Amino acid sequence: VLMEKDLDSTTTTRFILEPVDGGTNVTIHTRMPLKPGIAGRIEKWLSTRFLLGLYRVELGKLNDVASRQSL
Asked: Pick from 24, 29, 26: which is nearest to 13 by CA?
């Protein structure tokens, strides 16, 4: 487990790597404070869309590096 913390807030992201049959399962989990009410729901909706795209890019980079090193 690797944990990253935003020094300007309480936002944290955990990168969890677990071995599976011939490979590794990677989980990325971000915990961040949200505003209350409708602003928080909008913030959650927007941040979820942004983070899913970011996670896809990061997982692709990890896969590229792992593929090159396993050759």
From this structure: 29
pTM of the model: 0.73
Q: Give the list of residues 6+ apart from residue 62 with CB closer than 8 angstroms, or none.
A: 26
- In whole angstroms, give the CA distance from residue 49 to residue 70: 32
Q: CA–CA separation, 29 vs 10, rounded Å?
A: 14
In the prediction, which pLDDT does 71 show?
Answer: 55
- The set of residues, in sequence order, having a beta carbon less than 8 Å from that of 3 and lying 6+ positions away, is 12, 13, 14, 15
Question: In the beta sheet, which residues pair with residue 3?
Answer: 14
